[in-house]
Amino acid sequence: MSLMQVLFYMMAFIAVASALFVAGTRNLVRSIFMFFITLFALAGLYVLALADFVAITQIVIYVGGILVLILFAFMLSGKETLNATGRQSDKFISINKLPALLLSGLFLIVLLNMIFKIDANNLEWIKKSAITKNMILPNSSMTENVGINLMTKYLLPFEAISVLLMIALIGAAHLSRKGRGA
Fold first, then answer.
1. Strand spans (E) along 44-176
2. What is the mean pLDDT of the segment spanning 142-164?
3. What mean pLDDT value characterizes the chain?
4. What is the C-alpha separation between 34 and 19, in angstroms, rounded?
5. Are 71 and 34 in contact (CB under 8 A)?
6. Separation between Cα atoms, residue 145 and residue 138, nearest integer Å
7. Would you place residue 16 in the very low, low, confident or very high pLDDT band (cuts 50, 70, 90)?
8. What's the rounded Cα separation, in Å, for the pair 75 and 71?
9. Is the pTM of this model over 0.70?
10. At a CB cut-off of 8 Å and minimum separation 6, what does 6 contact?
C-alpha cells in the first residue's frame, strides 16, 4: 500500500467519522467543531485528488465563511432556542418528521433513477474533457479547464458541498431566529 493510499484512507475515515458525529450528536457546539474537521478532511481529499483549486475554495468559502456564519448564529441565538432544540422527541418516526422522511425518500428515488439511467460517456462536455485528458494545456483557457473539471471529474463533491452550503444556511437562519417557536 502506497503512501497516497494510506493518506486517502486516513482522510476518508476522518471525513466520514466526523460527519457521522455531526449528524448524530445533540450537542451543537461539538457538532459545529466536528463539522469544521469534516470540511478540512474534505479539503485534504481534494488535495490528494490533485484538485488544488477546489481544496482552496473549500477552505476559503466553506470553512472560512459558512462555518463562521454558523458559529455566529450559534453564539447570537438565545438560550430558549437552544433549549428548544434539545427537547425534541427521541422517536425516529413521528408525525412531525413524516414530511421530511417522505421528501428525503422521494429525493433518494430521483437520485438513484438518475444515476442508473444517465449515459455519462456520451455527453458532449465529457467527451471534450476526455480528449484533453483533464490536463491543463499551455494554450487552454484556465477558466474553461476549471469549469470542465468541476462539471466532470469533480461534479459529485461540488454538488455535495453545494447541498451542504444550503443546509448550513438553513441551519444558521433557524438558530439565529429569536422569539419565534423553533
1. none
2. 80
3. 77
4. 7
5. no
6. 11
7. very high
8. 6
9. no
10. none
